[in-house]
Structures are given as C-alpha cells and as structure tokens.
C-alpha cells in the first residue's frame, strides 16, 4: 500500500532496539537469578497518587465517563488556571487552558494548527526526538540548532535570531529538557520570546518537567513572559499519570476556537475518567505527595551525578529538573551506542545511547534516567564502576584526548 509521504519523514525510535535487547536479556538473566537495572525509561517509577486513583474509580463507578467538551472539563481548566496563580503568581484565564491527550496530544494539535507544509520550526539539538516528528507529521521541517554545555544545551536568543529564515514559523523548546534535564535561564527565555515576537512567529515551550524542577532559579513558567507564548504541559510526569494520557496547553485566547474545531473533529475529547481523576491532582494532599516525590527525584540526582563523575563519566551540566542526566562517555568509548549495549550485556544496567536525541556528536553521549530507587542507583553505579575500572587502565590516549576536547 502506498503510504503518505509525511510518514517517511517520521524517524524510528532507536531506543526501541535497546528496549528489545533489554527484554531478551532480562528473560535470560531472570532464569539465572540475576536482575537488570533499567535507567532507560522516560517515566516516573511512581504511579498516580492515591487521591487521583480514588477519584478515577469514583468517576467510573458513578458513570462520569461520557464525552466532555473538546477543550476539556471546565472545572479542570479552572483548577489548572488557579494552580498557575497559586504556584507561579501568574494569572491565567481558564478559557486559555486546553486539555489534551498528554503533552503529545497538545504538541500534535499545536503543530497541526500552526505549521504549514514546508514551514521550518527551530529546536535545540539535543532534543526530545518526538518534537521533530510532531513538526514533520504536520508537513513542517524541524531545524536543529546545535547547543553546547556552555548554554545548558539550550539555544540562545542570538542563535534563534540568526537562524531565522524566510520559511521559519516558530520555535519549539523544552525547559527542563529531555534528555539533558537542564533549563533555559529565565532572562534568556525572555530574550528568545522578544526575538520570536519581533519575527512574528510562535513560541512553544514544553514545560512538562517544570514542576519537577530542583533549582528555583529556573522554576518560572514561560507564561509569565506574555500571553502569546504557548505552554505545553502534562499530568504524566509531575503527577505520575503517564498511561492516563492527559495533558494540557495554555494558548492565546484566539487559538481556542480553532483548536476546539480541530480536537473535536480529530478525537472528540480527552479521556473523561482521566479528567475527573485529575481534578484530585490539585487537592492539598495530592500536591504534598507530588512535592515529596519531587524531593525524592532531587535526592536521586544527588546520588547518581557524583557517582558518575567519580567514575569518569562526565556530566558537564548539573540537571536542574526532570529525572535525566546527559552523560559524556567519551573517556571510555568512541561510540555510546556500542558502549550502552556492552554495559547492558556485561552489567545489566540499561542506558539510552545519544543517537535518538542528538545529531551532533551522538556517539559521545548517553541518557540516564534516575526514575529508579536510590538503592538501585547505587547498585548501578557499583556495577558501572566494576565494568569501567579495567577499561580505564586500557583507555587509549586517542580516546582520552577525545574526552579532553572542548564539548561541541
Ligand atoms: C519533553 C517531553 N515532552 C513531551 C512528552 C510526552 O509526554 P506525554 O504525552 O506523556 O504527556 C515527553 C515524554 O517523555 C517528554 O519528555
């Protein structure tokens, strides 16, 4: 069957090769009584907080499972708007909150709404791989902007201004980012917003990890900048509701009507039991639990990052949020793909090679997800240490020189 051309532009996930190999190995290791440690998954190891589960059960029991309006339950839109006021001191009109099937649904809708075939959208390299594909699926062209550790792997306003061409329509950023866990400094984001405004484009800021931030210097929502910024968000990470498929975006008011038409036609509405359950997210006891879990993620970061550095696995920028570390393995290997597979075979620790996220020096990096217990993180560090120690002695001078090269 002839497939639409747009599907050819949608790249596969290389990480699926890792997942498949890890599954096969796990079956074998389990038979031998050995365990694998998965530091590859991009989802929290907690499930939804108990009040959310109870609210979901009650909604199902009481039959609150029919369609809702396309932009979502008014009460949920109001609760989200109130949260911006309470937590960030930013007033948001509930009519600007649009509930979606995860941040993925929001990004899909936003790209279909704003991107014409042939339009360019600027985004950083490395980036969350799906971001390229949301743009490509709308017929647009993702244009990657190389970043370095010096700018926390985030693009600068000057870079965006210089890269803006006749076909450029907008910018898609994530702060904190996946795979690096690093945020854009608020003053730089303000400068980026000014450039985008001057150019008459759109600024989409994926803030799915905003509430999982550990450094108050970066914790401010982009919505504080102005009413034209589009903020993407989700219940997946901070509220640990990945499979419930619920997210939202805050958009300029005039986008709500066309989004309602688009979403209503494409999928009618987001899951209504999930929306009823999500109302419980903003209850004080749920927020207290979410904050405890955030603190636990910060504790894990503070365990794993120093442990990696002691091993000579460099983390050039300390992550300030999410649950990822972007790690330089060039001291030990010329190719993070081979490195990750070898580490998995030898130690059972599962990591994700940089290839999915980066086009610049993907072979230098891997992503580690610390959505795992402190005990497992310590065990993983021990296993990595035992694996790396003999290799450190053999590390050839060329490899060491690569590790000492400035970061691209
Ligand atoms: C940066 C980023 N954006 C969006 C998503 C999609 O999240 P969801 O659709 O579950 O809300 C993810 C998931 O890992 C992500 O890391």
Automatic annotation (TrEMBL):
Keywords: Aminotransferase, Pyridoxal phosphate, Transferase. One of its GO terms (molecular function) is pyridoxal phosphate binding. Its EC number is 2.6.1.1. This is Putative aspartate aminotransferase. Pfam families: Aminotran_1_2. Its cofactor is pyridoxal 5'-phosphate. Belongs to the class-I pyridoxal-phosphate-dependent aminotransferase family. CDD domains: AAT_like. InterPro entries: Aminotransferase_I/II_large, AspAT/PAT-like, PyrdxlP-dep_Trfase, PyrdxlP-dep_Trfase_major. It comes from Thiomonas delicata. GO terms for biological process: amino acid metabolic process. Residues 35-384 form the Aminotransferase class I/classII large domain.
């Amino acid at each position: 069957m002839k497939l639409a051309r747009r599907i050819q532009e949608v790249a596969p996930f290389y990480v699926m090769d890792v997942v498949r190999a890890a599954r096969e190995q796990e079956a074998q290791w389990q038979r031998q009584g050995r365990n694998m440690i998965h530091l590859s998954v991009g989802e929290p190891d907690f499930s939804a907080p108990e009040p959310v589960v109870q609210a979901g059960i009650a909604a199902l029991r009481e039959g609150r499972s029919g369609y809702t309006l396309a932009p979502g339950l008014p009460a949920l839109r109001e609760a989200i708007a109130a949260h911006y006021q309470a937590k960030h001191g930013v007033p948001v009109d509930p009519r600007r909150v649009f509930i979606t099937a995860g941040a993925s649904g929001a990004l899909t809708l936003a790209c279909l709404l704003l991107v014409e075939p042939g339009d360019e959208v600027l985004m950083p390299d490395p980036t969350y791989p799906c971001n390229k594909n949301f743009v490509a699926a709308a017929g647009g062209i993702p244009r990657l902007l190389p970043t370095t550790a010096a700018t926390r792997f985030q693009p600068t306003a000057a870079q965006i201004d210089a890269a803006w061409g006749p076909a450029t329509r907008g910018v898609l950023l994530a702060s904190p980012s996946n795979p690096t866990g690093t945020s854009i400094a608020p003053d730089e984001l303000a400068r980026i917003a000014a450039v985008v405004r001057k150019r008459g484009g759109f600024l989409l800021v994926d803030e799915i990890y905003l509430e999982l931030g550990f450094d108050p210097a970066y914790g401010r929502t982009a919505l504080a900048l102005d009413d034209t910024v589009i903020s993407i968000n989700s219940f997946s990470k901070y509220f640990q509701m990945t499979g419930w498929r619920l997210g939202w975006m805050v958009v300029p008011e005039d986008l709500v009507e066309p989004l309602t038409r688009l979403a209503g036609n494409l999928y009618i509405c987001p899951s209504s039991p999930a929306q009823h359950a999500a109302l419980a997210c903003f209850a004080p006891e749920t927020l207290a639990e979410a904050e405890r879990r955030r603190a636990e993620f910060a504790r894990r970061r503070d365990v794993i990052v120093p442990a990696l550095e002691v091993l000579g696995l460099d983390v050039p920028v300390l992550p300030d949020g999410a649950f990822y570390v972007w790690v330089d393995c060039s001291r030990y290997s010329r190719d993070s793909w081979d490195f990750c597979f070898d580490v998995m075979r030898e130690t059972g620790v599962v990591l994700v090679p940089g290839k999915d996220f980066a086009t610049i020096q993907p072979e230098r990096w891997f992503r580690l997800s610390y959505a795992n217990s402190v005990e497992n993180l310590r065990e993983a560090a021990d296993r990595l240490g035992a694996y790396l120690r003999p290799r450190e002695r053999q590390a050839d001078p060329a490899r060491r020189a690569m590790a000492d090269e400035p970061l691209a």
